[in-house]
Design goal:
Elements lengths: L1 E4 L13 H8 L5 E7 L8 E7 L17 H14 L1 E7 L1 H7 L1 H14 L7 E5 L9 E5 L7 H24 L5 H4 L5 H10 L10 H11 L1
Parallel strand pairs: 1-6, 2-5, 5-6
Antiparallel strand pairs: 2-3, 3-4
């Protein structure tokens, strides 16, 4: 089974809970994974997806869309989730993004994150309006990271994992400010590109990077 659940209106309260997980269990599903990604929009670095199966009775307090949490709280919740949940991570590197496009790379990373779980779930809740190719029933939930606790947990795992990767890239390629802007097209990043040119972490298929390459070749 595959279906898409539309997002809530601006007037609705965005507070993740277990309503989607409860509905899945009432339909006969026992193991339910939340899936989300981080890093579709940046000009550099991988896109990271995470799958999380929460443990009933051991769900960390304060789970929410990772974008709504302070960095220190994300880091704390990351550690708690690793200790009490089933977690799988999929990483689509820059080469795959440039070869396949960002959407295909994201779907691949999501599927890989499910494969990386200790046990295969029988149902998946995916943030967004598209479904990756999974070997289980799945449901796409628009704005799901603010509606489902399992997806919120996955958003935290994906975000913290990617942020750590970008901090490592900052050490490998100093001067670009990856630790600060995480690969997004900020003014600092644009200034660094103008001064230093590209490095292997940049997504050459993205329009701003492709334009820079074309201008330098002209």
């Amino acid at each position: 089974m595959a279906r898409i659940v539309a997002g809530m209106s601006c007037a609705d309260s965005f507070s993740p809970d277990l309503a989607f997980e409860k509905a899945a269990r009432e339909s006969g599903h026992a193991s339910i994974a939340g899936i989300d990604e981080a890093g579709r929009g940046p000009w550099a670095g991988p896109v990271v997806a995470a799958s999380v199966v929460l443990t009933e009775g051991a769900i960390p307090a304060g789970l929410n869309d990772s974008k709504k949490l302070r960095e220190d709280k994300r880091e704390r919740l990351f550690d708690e989730l690793i200790g009490c949940s089933q977690v799988g991570i999929g990483i689509a590197e820059v080469e795959r993004i440039d070869r396949d496009n960002i959407l295909a790379a994201t779907m691949w990373a999501m599927a890989e994150s499910v494969k990386a779980l200790p046990h295969t779930p029988d149902y998946a809740l995916i943030d967004g309006n598209r479904l990756p190719d999974l070997h289980c029933d799945a449901e796409a939930v628009v704005k799901g990271d603010g509606r489902s606790l399992s997806i919120a947990a996955a958003s935290i795992i994906a975000k913290v994992t990617r942020d750590r990767i970008l901090r490592d890239l900052d050490g490998q390629y100093p001067g670009y400010g990856f630790a600060r802007h995480k690969g997004y097209g900020t003014r600092q990043h644009q200034q660094a590109l103008a001064k230093l040119g590209l490095c292997p972490a940049h997504r050459k298929s993205f329009a701003p990077i492709r334009l820079l390459l074309e201008n330098r070749a002209a």
